Amino acid sequence: MRGKSLIALSSVLALIFIGYRYLPSYYNPFAPLQLNDPPGRITQYKLRRLSPQACRALLTEANQQQVISARPVADSQGDCPLSNVVRVQDFGAVKLNSSFLASCPLALSSALFVQQQARPLTERLMGSALVRIDHLGSYACRNIYNRADARRSEHASAEALDISAFHLANGQQVTVLNGWRQARTQPWLRAMLSASCGYYGNGLGPEYNAAHANHFHLGMRGFGLCR
Hints:
The chain is globular. The protein is built from six helices and ten strands. The chain has helices at 2-22, 41-48, 52-64, 104-126, 176-179, 186-195, and strands at residues 69-72, 85-90, 95-96, 100-103, 130-137, 160-168, 173-175, 202-204, 216-219, 225-226. Helices cover 35% and strands 20% of the residues. By secondary structure, it is of the alpha+beta class. Strands 3, 5, 6, 7, 8, 9 and 10 form a seven-stranded mixed beta sheet that branches. It has a three-stranded antiparallel beta sheet with strand order 1-2-4.
């Protein structure tokens, strides 16, 4: 009986070893993240555990593939010092109303979100290509809700982006403020906010509170809280 148990255990361990050896890298939580890894919990986990060096390497690769256009900027001092940040100019074919400062994790997560989710969701649900994203900014040296007794906002370290509107190739402009209340655009905007969970630590929209009625707050704190 004991011999049969050992044989069964050995067989199970052998199958695990073989499965691990030939498992596609995007299913392996211990394999390095690649830009073409599909969305999912494993990709999200890899994004969250990236070392600064690995993040910079992937961001360089994303620049080369024209998924994003971002360049390093000098470190700054003051009440809200910044280090190892970049200025994002665009997301390839998807332009911006203006450039913004971002930590490497925010820049990389945003590039993947736009490429893997925002663009295909817009094509599928709106029948037109996403060509521009409008934002309200990323870096602001302040506390949460500007309260004196609150902790520093994610914006104080360029770890959050506030998105206010989307422009489509057919000429349509959809703001978060108005689009969230319209039957034609609300399902699409809800899908976009929900999809952000796989890339950011938190995604806050109009139903979170009144302060977010006109934008999506996409930040790096937490682990996939979107509401």
